[in-house]
Amino acid sequence: MAKGGSGAVGIGYGLTVAAAGMLATAIYAVFLVAPVEATLGISQKIFYFHVGSAINMLLSFAVCAMAGLAYLTVGGARPHWAGIADAVGVATAEVGVTLGAIVLVTGPLWARKAWGTWWTWEPRLTLSLMVFLLFLAYLALRAFAGSDRFGRGVAAGLSILGIPAVYFIHFAVERWGGAHPQVVYKGGLSQPGMRLAFGLSVAAMFLFAAALAWLRILTERERRQLDALYLEVDRRSE
Amino acid sequence: MKDEIRRYLAIVGKDLRVEFRTREILYTTTLFALLLVVIFAFAFLSDQSKSRIYGPGIVWVTVLFATTVGQNRLFDRERENDCLWSLLLSPAAPSTVFLAKATAQVAFALLMQVPTIVLILVFFDLQITDPLSFVASLALGNVALGLIGTLFAAMLMNARMKEVLLPLVTYPVFVPVVIAGVKVTAVAVGAPVVEDVDTWLRFLAGFDMIFGVVTVALFGRMVRA
């Protein structure tokens, strides 16, 4: 596992630098290129980071589920690949929680300005909250259900189950709103400057998430190596 | 196939027989549910006329909490002497073992809910105007809770903190079931809401089917992982 480690670390540094550069560019575009929205004013700027984080949160959720699926299907036959899938799972889950926290902080901040209330049970907001809670449950399993094969297996199972669960939650909360007024989403980014800032923000948050996930995977690998070395020392001292 | 059905019935029969002799799960969860109803009555019952508004919620919160308590106990007997592994080593397929345990779980949950719901109807002065959809929502909802709860109860059987971990993991997934159940129940007790009962029942049935396939497939993989 130590072989090729420096290349992987190099990719980690590269991703970090790229994420920092892209974030700076996105901030420049958001505040200096994109025009101020006519009705919402300056508060609309938070949209770029809010939606950028939300899209990447759903992406990490999907990657986490795929890693879970890979972990359970290759399973015991290929321990090396199962280990990688497991590391990807925990890394994307932790990144997902970080992005989810950004979504759930920026969402109410914006809602307060745009709709005059901190929280509405708007379908999209509710779905983000539920995805966030599923991620937290996944991490709780990783932390407290045991770090052995069993604990990892049950966490992987939850990440897979999360996909149909999110689909059903989405349907249920959309209809659950019932009599409440539907908040029309500010979809149309009319100005090219806005579209540019939006694209850059999504890309910046993606690189940010990828850099974090990559570094977290490396840490997880180091931790495994350390565990293996401890076992080796134990075995030799007998 | 015939053999699998025989094994399935054998495992379900074993669980029901042990339960009816000891009454561990039924007695404790039923009593817990009845106490919940009493607590809810003290917490909410200030205006009898509004009971149709919050009654459906009370029905489903009680069902959810009491079922979770039962699910935490479901694999207690399998834990002693590594009985679950013996079951999995038997000729029965893992999916058969899983479906048998889930069936037993749903049976215990429904038996516990009958007196509880009667008590809720009496205490909160609710009249069921549409018993058929109400019973259908309870049955479909319990299958959903049973499938997901049994899967994670089995997986967390040996975890030190399984009592808290089980609801942490299952409740986010249960949210759609509770939403659908409350909607159907609200219509069934004549609450002033406009809801399409058939859509919600179909939703629950779809939930059961999808999660039936997913949980059965996952159980076999997760025990072998």
SSE diagram, text form:
The complex is a heterodimer of chains A (238) and B (225).
Chain A: H1 5-33, H2 46-74, H3 79-114, H4 123-144, H5 149-176, H6 192-237
Helix pairs in contact in A: 1-6, 2-3, 2-5, 2-6, 3-4, 3-6, 4-5
Chain B: H1 2-22, H2 24-44, H3 51-73, H4 76-79, H5 83-89, H6 94-123, H7 131-155, H8 162-188, H9 197-224
Helix pairs in contact in B: 1-6, 2-3, 2-6, 3-6, 3-7, 3-8, 6-7, 6-9, 7-8, 7-9, 8-9
In brief:
The complex is a heterodimer of chains A (238) and B (225). Chain A is built from six helices and no strands.
* SS strand fraction of chain B: under 5%
- Total beta strand runs of chain B: 0
Largest sheet of chain A: none
> What structural category characterises the helix and strand content of chain B?
mainly alpha
Overall mean confidence score, pLDDT of chain B = 91
Uncertain spans of chain B: none
Q: N-to-C SSE series of chain B?
A: HHHHHHHHH
Instruction: Summarize the amount of helix of chain B as a percent range.
Output: over 70%
Explain what the structure shows:
In chain A, 80% of the residues lie in helices and 0% in strands. Chain A is mainly α and 238 residues long. In chain A, helix 1 runs antiparallel to helix 6, helix 2 packs across helix 5 (149-176) and helix 3 (79-114) packs antiparallel against helix 4 (123-144). The two termini of chain A are 25 Å apart. With 225 residues, chain B is mostly helical. Chains A and B meet through helix 2, helix 4 and helix 5 of A and helix 7, helix 8 and helix 9 of B.
Fill in the keyword field for this structure.
heterodimer; A: 238 residues; mainly alpha; 6 helices; B: 225 residues; 9 helices; 0% strand
